[in-house]
Amino acid sequence: MKNKENKYIQAYNKLSDLYKEEKVGQRIQQDTDFTIHRMETVHNIPVESPVFRANYFSFILIRKGKSFYTIDNHKFYTKPRTLYFTNPGHLKSFGIEEVVHGFIITTSEEYLKEHIHTGVFDEFSFLLTEMVPPCFLDDSRFDELQNLAEQILEEQTKNSTLRHKIVSSLFMVFLLKVKEFLMKDDSFKIAYDRESEIVNQFKKDLESTFRSGNLTSVALQVSTFAEQQQLHPAYFSTVIKTKTGISGNRWIQNKITAEAQALLSKSSTPVKQIAYQLGFNEPTHFSKFFKKQTGLSPNQYRNR
Fold first, then answer.
1. 185-210: per-residue pLDDT in tens?
2. With contact defined as beta carbons under 8 Å apart, do 188 and 195 qualify?
3. Which CATH class for the 194-302 domain?
4. Does the domain made of 3-184 have the CATH classification 2.60.120.280?
């Protein structure tokens, strides 16, 4: 569902909502946080989007066609055999000048934590990169990713009880291949400015804090993360809000929620223990927080 951030820029939690509301792609049905579509199917005519925020990860694989995309105030052009990805929170737009053939994959942090690995950002730290220009692949590398995308799309459309497991396993291989290419391809450079560095470090510090296993209410304060970068909390908060459209507190709350959802889905750890593990002094406070964020109690979410 879309959320108004101001009267000009909309935020979208799902690809289907973006296509429906902005009419920049063919309408699609979306019942999970993972999607894969052929670009030539969902964008079968030239189109240019307005500026928006997407609260999900996107991977775009372009075999042929002519297009561009923007992230904040940076504009990038694609060409045949292009791979690029974007992560949540940025101001974005895109334009298709000649129909693009390839694939678009979208996924949420919750999906990554549930279906790939609870420590997905440890294994795939590039997903936290604030901004990455497009990667231009050679034939063999592109064909590897395209073949994986074809397999993922085929399995996604099957009515199999193991569909989600097979799709997530193939997507894991896709991510591993992307990681392999990033480590080898010198042309795939990270574009930073000072504020992007601040946001990128905040994301890494946030992830590191949760991985440390030593969560406390103090550790999860915005001022603590500002202090880690030796920044004034007010300036730090302004940068995070301006660059991502989401406040530092909301980033922290979203991370707590995603971690809780992953623990409830992937383990049999008692709710009380999960509460303490996530820095809550009282399990009842965790239950109230979780229900406010998701509309379900922890037990309801686990048993859904």
1. 665 555 446 777 889 899 999 999 98
2. no
3. mainly alpha
4. yes
